[in-house]
Amino acid sequence: xxxxxxxxxxxxxxxxxxxxxxxxxxxxxxxxxxxxxxxxxxxxxxxxxxxxxxxxxxxxxxxxxxxxxxxxxxxxxxxxxxxxxxxxxxxxxxxxxxxxxxxxxxxxxxxxxxxxxxxxxxxxxxxxxxxxxxxxxxxxxxxxxxxxxxxxxxxxxxxxxxxxxxxxxxxxxxxxxxxxxxxxxxxxxxxxxxxxxxxxxxxxxxxxxxxxxxxxxxxxxxxxxxxxxxxxxxxxxxxxxxxxxxxxxxxxxxxxxxxxxxxxxxxxxxxxxxxxxxxxxxxxx
Amino acid sequence: xxxxxxxxxxxxxxxxxxxxxxxxxxxxxxxxxxxxxxxxxxxxxxxxxxxxxxxxxxxxxxxxxxxxxxxxxxxxxxxxxxxxxxxxxxxxxxxxxxxxxxxxxxxxxxxxxxxxxxxxxxxxxxxxxxxxxxxxxxxxxxxxxxxxxxxxxxxxxxxx
Lengths: 285, 160
Prior knowledge:
- The complex is a heterodimer of chains A (285) and B (160).
- With 285 residues, chain A is α+β, with helices and mostly antiparallel strands.
- Chain A folds into three domains: 7-56, 2-Layer Sandwich (Uridine Diphospho-n-acetylenolpyruvylglucosamine Reductase, domain 2); 58-174, Uridine Diphospho-n-acetylenolpyruvylglucosamine Reductase, domain 3 (2-Layer Sandwich); 180-282, Enolase-like, domain 1, CATH 3.30.390.
- In chain A, 33% of the residues lie in helices and 25% in strands.
- Chain A has twelve helices and 14 strands.
- Chain A has a five-stranded antiparallel beta sheet with strand order 4-5-10-6-7.
- In chain A, strand 4 (63-66) and strand 5 (69-73) form a beta hairpin.
- The radius of gyration of chain A is 19 Å and the shape is globular.
- Chain A starts with 6 loop residues before the first strand and ends with a helix.
- Chain B contains five helices and five strands, in the order E-E-H-E-E-E-H-H-H-H.
- Chain B has two domains: 2-77, Ubiquitin-like (UB roll) (Roll), CATH 3.10.20; 86-155, DNA polymerase, domain 1 (Orthogonal Bundle), CATH 1.10.150.120.
- In chain B, a hairpin with a 2-residue loop joins strand 1 (2-8) and strand 2.
- The N and C termini of chain B lie far apart (47 Å).
- Chain A binds chain B through residues 1-8, 10, 31, 34-35, 38-39, 41-43, 51, 53, 55, 79, 102-106, 108-109, 190-191, and chain B through 2, 18-22, 25, 41-44, 46, 49, 52, 55-58, 60-63, 65-66, 68, 109, 112-113, 128, 130-132.
């Protein structure tokens, strides 16, 4: 199948893109890397009248450092994030998670910002963004920008804080230099969406866990942060026994989906197993 | 209609296309480059893999208008002066195909893997090809062919 007819706009600045969004409103769809949008258009699950391609906007691409933050342009591809030494040094969790996304061809085109705004609960970028306490910079009309914490960014299934007429422009990630990190993704078939994924990053001190951050993929309609587990891990030795006990309640209060890959209870069980593995690996145990 | 200027297998083209035209459709239907095939049409199987500015992409998941101003290499552009590319030669010698449908995409992705990692382990080859499906499940000889190509390309690099 091929998409329905649409008009194509390729602005070269964020301002032009915002103006195009204002003009076309609901009839427009924003094209980032296109690796989720194009299959949707081909299957005719959506048929916008106008597609606004952000691929020609240079200011949205690349990784830079700003003091104690990394600044990642929304149109930076997964492959470019993976190739960034700054990301692997200061936000290793993001590199580890992105390395598991889809396959090499998709990672060459897909973008971190596109994935965050698409907000598929089975996507692998939301959980590390939450765990690393990323901040999302959103541009609006008249050159205004606002910054939203990852915690407040994901509102529901495929729904984020990015409003009508707005664009996600940057992901600001506080540096977690020296933190161990691991993303434990469970799939039954290579290069598929997470059935459940767990993002864990840990600061260790003398063999025990000084601080921990844990994000969950596909355990609800949005990515989730497991704060009670993070607190329970503080001060624990990085041993199987201690971590097993600290993460036992990770699925409490979650409402994961039931589908062909497994029912809700199965996902809750998986989450406890994967969290233990992720935390132990992140702690270097 | 939107005008695009693209270089495909070393030749410049300027064409009017509908914005909804997929890159793979443009290659096959406008340029007649049917060496690039359409497999699953859902961006899973990798049969339509080509290089866009030297990097592998699934051409059913890129619009032709997105390739405007860029360079595309297809399976038809790999051989130079009738001489097979080392990866093509290795696929031939290792019999790395059964029905052959996945072969163009496999070869294009194998080239990408070797460009980034000239001496990959078996595991790295399998992971590098994870976005390419062989429905005959003939992966064993495909991996052997990529290993052989890596060897022949590194010995060529040494002798040249």
